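Re: [ENG-882] Designed sequences occasionally contain unexpected residues at chain ends

Forwarding the minimal case from QA. Structure tokens:
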């Protein structure tokens, strides 16, 4: 009897995590074995440069279904996704729902699936920041409370799950699908136009990304941050691909320093080209700290906690906290050439999706 697996993607950081899974379904001949999939885009991110570009660049097939939920409060998005996905499942139930990461779409689809007695597999299960002021932490905890199969990126995640009483046979330590995508594309990275436009040189500029409310919602705080970074690294340039949320606040600031170069959110290949050649990355993202670790680029994270501690203990990342003054010394160290080289975390080897496919074949 044939089986149907749903693969859910909703927001930018999901797309690079699902791409290798779809590839592995093909290389493991799932279709010939009677295992079919539906790719479901919730529409949480809908701008071309937050969504479609990633599908094009990473060769992800056009979604079979787009729930088109769009923007809204967390509860509005959750509710709309649940209602729309439930409808799809009622019309044609699947045998397994695969969710990735920690965005609102991840949580909403797992709830809708489980309430209809459909098993959920969570890729990147078990990671915890233990900071419930972050919406992603709530999403992780709720998703993992009802997940049937946990595919994990680290031993720390395994331990978190064990502590929460998850049985060993439900935990599969497979590695990191985001890194599968990075390693597959590392030789295809693409120099963006702003490279030539700004005369950028390897190791002589920095990349900054910010979108967490704690860093960007208060204009006075954002201004302070921007001033510190600009002054500390001058005359080096700061490339700042700006999230829609951050742009609104940034444009209201009295000061937009000359060495900060704004760009629209970038595609995958161009963004990672910039990261690979940067002196340092300043970010409040989680996923980027994994990519800098693998590319061995120093990374400073403007958060108090991380759900990815191996990027600090094994990799090149350091937690700074949210006080921008704390950036000054580490930035000076990095420009002086004093920074840890880091190692690659266990199983972040480019073969994670293959391991996942082998396991899925057994469990679906
Ligand atoms: C979401 C994820 C976050 C992830 C981030 C990466 C949750 C809770 N958060 O946060 O974990 O790191 O994506 O980008 O799921 N907007 C647009 N165009 C779009 C999408 C959003 O302009 O295509 C605007 C919205 O109108 C809103 C803001 O961006 O004002 C926030 O979007 P939302 O999807 O709510 O969350 P993110 O902050 O992007």
């Amino acid at each position: 009897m044939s089986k149907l697996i749903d693969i859910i993607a909703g927001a930018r950081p999901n797309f690079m995590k699902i791409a290798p899974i779809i590839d592995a379904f093909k290389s493991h001949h799932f279709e010939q074995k009677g295992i079919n999939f539906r790719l479901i885009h919730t529409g949480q991110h809908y701008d071309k440069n937050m969504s479609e570009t990633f599908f094009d660049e990473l060769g992800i097939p056009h979604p079979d279904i787009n729930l088109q939920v769009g923007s809204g409060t967390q509860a509005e998005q959750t509710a709309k996704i649940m209602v729309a996905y439930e409808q799809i499942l009622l019309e044609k139930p699947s045998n397994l729902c695969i969710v990735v990461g920690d965005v609102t779409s991840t949580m909403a689809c797992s709830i809708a699936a489980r309430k209809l007695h459909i098993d959920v597999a969570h890729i990147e299960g078990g990671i915890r920041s233990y900071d419930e002021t972050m919406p992603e932490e709530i999403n992780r905890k709720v998703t993992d409370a009802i997940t049937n199969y946990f595919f994990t990126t680290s031993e720390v995640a395994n331990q978190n799950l064990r502590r929460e009483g998850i049985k060993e046979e439900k935990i599969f330590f497979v590695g990191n699908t985001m890194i599968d995508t990075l390693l597959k594309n590392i030789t295809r990275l693409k120099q963006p136009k702003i490279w030539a436009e700004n005369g950028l040189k390897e190791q002589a500029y920095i990349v900054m990304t910010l979108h967490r409310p704690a860093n960007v919602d208060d204009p006075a705080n954002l201004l302070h941050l921007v001033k510190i970074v600009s002054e500390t690294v001058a005359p080096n340039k700061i490339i700042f691909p700006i999230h829609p949320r951050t742009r609104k606040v940034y444009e209201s600031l009295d000061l937009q320093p000359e060495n900060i170069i704004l760009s629209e959110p970038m595609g995958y290949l161009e963004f990672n080209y910039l990261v690979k050649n940067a002196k340092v990355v300043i970010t409040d993202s989680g996923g980027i700290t994994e990519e800098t670790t693998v590319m061995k680029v120093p990374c400073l994270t403007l958060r108090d906690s991380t759900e990815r501690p191996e990027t600090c203990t094994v990799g090149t990342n350091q937690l700074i906290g949210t006080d921008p003054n704390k950036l000054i010394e580490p930035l000076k160290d990095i420009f002086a050439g004093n920074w840890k080289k880091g190692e690659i975390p266990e199983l972040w080897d480019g073969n994670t999706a293959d391991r996942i496919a082998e396991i899925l074949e057994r469990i679906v």
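QA comment: On inspection the terminal residues look reasonable. Residues 201 and 313 are 29 Å apart (CA to CA). Proposing we downgrade this to a documentation issue.
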